[in-house]
Amino acid sequence: MKRSIVLVGMMGAGKSAVGAELARRLGVPHLDTDAEIARAAAATIPEIFARDGEDFFRARETEVLGRVLRGPPAVVSTGGGAWMRPENRVLVAGAGVSVWLDCPLALLWHRVRHKPTRPLLQTQDPLGTLTRLLEERAPTYALAEVIIPVREGDSIETTASRVLEAVRAHQAAPAISPAQEP
Ligand SMILES: Nc1ncnc2c1ncn2[C@@H]1O[C@H](COP(=O)(O)OP(=O)(O)OP(=O)(O)O)[C@@H](O)[C@H]1O
Ligand SMILES: O=C(O)C1=C[C@@H](O)[C@@H](O)[C@H](O)C1
Ligand SMILES: [Mg+2]
């Protein structure tokens, strides 16, 4: 594996779960930016948001992403908002293939509704917030090089297999030079 695989998408899409399975199969490190930030801060993600604010978290996220992408090829599970920052997309483009786990709203909600670990969903109307975030973010997630639709009933293993297959097909495809574009 020459380039890292970088999973992007909404909270609950399965970036951490599928990333761990992919790394195990490929025999490469699995790095989860949320986990790396929490480890360095010796605090949980909700604690960091509450104590230092979202801007601080986003700055650490960009630092961590840059650091893990400078290392040997790995599977990188990003936080749900990481792909929204243009500088993070530039970092990913330089070192890895980006993969959007494209998961429908109902399935995301089913997975995140009972967990207090996502500070952005600690609102009066968490489903409304999740809906708005997905609507706002989907066009940007769609800029990822590889898109994997994830549907109810797809296991972590099945999703990991589909990611691997799609990444291999993507890497085997000849790059289109600007001169060939219409
Ligand atoms: N394909 C799947 N089948 C069943 N459960 C899954 C699947 N993918 C993820 N899950 C479960 O859904 C929950 C959320 O997944 P996970 O933590 O991997 O999401 P995430 O994309 O990393 O979210 P975040 O952006 O908040 O870190 C976990 O409990 C995980 O085990
Ligand atoms: O979607 C988001 O913006 C977030 C997702 C999580 O992975 C964490 O990075 C944090 O809770 C923010
Ligand atoms: Mg995660």
From TrEMBL:
Binds 1 Mg(2+) ion per subunit. It is found in: Cytoplasm. Substrate binds at residues 34, 58, 80, 137. It catalyses: shikimate + ATP = 3-phosphoshikimate + ADP + H(+). Its cofactor is Mg(2+). Belongs to the shikimate kinase family. This is Shikimate kinase. It comes from Paracoccus solventivorans.
